[in-house]
Amino acid sequence: MKTHSIAVLPGDGTGPEVVREGVKVAEAAAKKFGFKIDWHYYDFGGERYLKTGEVLPDSEVEEFRRYRTIFLGAVGHPKVKPGILEKGLLLRLRFELEQYINLRPVKLYRTVDCPLKDKGPEHIDFVVVRENNEGLYTGAGGFLFKGTPHEVAIQESVNTRRGVDRCLKYAFELAKKRRGGKPWKGLKPEDVSAGKTTQLTLCGKTNVLTFAFDLWERAFHEMGAGYPTVKRDYAHVDATCMWFVKNPEWFDVIVTDNMFGDIITDLAAMIQGGLGVAAGGNINPEGCSMFEPMGGSAPKYTGQNVINPLAAINAAGMMLDSLGEHAAATAIENTVIKIINTKIKSLAAGKMGYSTTQVGDLVAEAVA
Ligand code: IPM
Ligand code: MN
Could you tell me if the CB of 262 is within 6 A of ligand 1? Predict the structure, then answer.
């Protein structure tokens, strides 16, 4: 039987509670679809840091390199100064393992969960491809005259042609394969007659960030010439935020830099029903990828069995898809949609009408 070896990093806060349900559902899918998963648990996070002062030893980075997949719960602890765990664990793994894509499918499952109540699942179904290793996140820059009245702080955005190109390539390939090549309904008749089946929007700020997004824009159009079925579109990041709320049906696949991607994917999570369902992947197409619910560690709900595990379950689905278990991934997603539409009252923590464990059980039983 095919066996996948997966590293599990439950992390902090509600991370362990939601990861438990993700593992439960993935196990149910494995049984049903005939494969096996070996889970290897690691206890990195706030608790371990507070006890030992250790965030992520170098030897452990090497250990993670041996995996194709990591399942991550949440990073962040109320007793640890912000930045230590984020940079030392999450960003360190993203950078060291060259998970240069951050992939965020955005799909509305049920109208009541959306603040844009006249929009339905047919209007909100796009994917954000966020560059995950460069931009403002590299730590380039520094202080001058720190602590004096003349203090200067500089934070630089790093955009390499190699980094931008590999991100664009992932986005164009994803766009090309989306819906198995069946045309996207958002296309204009003239696009369809020109042979387009899908759209890729570059989200940037070419009117102000005239170096970084000049490079992005040139690279986008140069590479796009090799993808004749992908319609190229451009939107400024501020306008993208506006349209996510006003006209989310205008988006199919979006590609953007690290900082803009961070911001627009939080907004995107809200229009799909909230952090209770939003999942993401940190992807190295040739190496080790890491999948996580978007929600964070939610200290206020920790240990109460009330947090919504569907985001972690969706992350488990994305993870199985990346391992080639497409049937299992589709079954998980369809089950999540069914459970949301027939059972769960609200996607918010504590208001689901079920506990965390019960939601995991519902999905696992239905998948099995
Ligand atoms: C995310 C998070 C991280 C980011 C934080 C925790 C460093 O907000 O995954 O979007 O900014 O990338
Ligand atoms: Mn974020």
Answer: yes
Q: What is the CATH number of the domain that holds 283?
A: 3.40.718.10
User: What b/e sequence results for 13-22 when a residue is b if at least 16 CB atoms lie within 10 Å of its CB, and e otherwise?
Assistant: bbbbbbbbbb
Q: Based on the structure, what is the number of domains in the chain?
A: 2
Residues 48-59, mean pLDDT to the nearest whole number:
96
The confidence score (pLDDT) of residue 181 equals 84
Q: Are residues 158 and 82 in the same domain?
A: no
Whether 25 has a pLDDT exceeding 90, the answer reads yes
Note the pLDDT of residue 177. 95
Here the tokens at position 3 are 């066996």
Would you say residue 83 lies in a domain?
Answer: yes
Distance (Å, rounded) from C-alpha 92 to C-alpha 87? Answer: 6
Whether residues 221 and 299 fall in one domain: no
Any domain includes 127: no
132 within domain boundaries = no
- Give tens-digit pLDDT for 169-208: 999 999 999 998 899 999 999 999 999 999 999 999 999 9
Q: The domain containing residue 14 runs over which residues?
A: 1-115+272-368
Ligand 1 atom 11, closest CA = 262
Same domain flag for 229 and 329: no
Does the beta carbon of 90 sit less than 6 angstroms from any atom of ligand 1?
yes
Whether residues 307 and 365 fall in one domain: yes
Alpha carbon of 181 to ligand 2 centroid (Å) = 30
Instruction: Compute, in angstroms, the gap from residue 58 CA to the centroid of ligand 1.
Output: 22
Last residue within a domain, chosen from 224, 253, 282 = 253
C-alpha span between 61 and 84 (Å, rounded): 16
Over residues 114-147, the pLDDT tens digits come to 989 999 999 999 999 999 999 999 999 999 999 9
User: Distance, CA 266 to ligand 2 centroid (Å)?
Assistant: 6
- In a 3-state reduction of DSSP, which class is residue 231? strand
16 lies in some domain? yes
Q: Is 93 exposed, middle or buried (0-12, 13-18, 19+ CB in 10 A)?
A: buried
Q: Would the CB of 249 count as within 6 Å of ligand 1?
A: no
Give residue-wise pLDDT tens across range 305-360. 999 999 999 999 999 999 999 999 999 999 999 999 999 999 999 999 999 999 99
Please state, in angstroms and rounded to a whole number, the distance separating the CA atoms of residues 87 and 91: 5
Shortest-distance atom of ligand 1 to CA 87: 7
Report the pLDDT value the prediction gives residue 298, as an integer from 0 to 100.
95
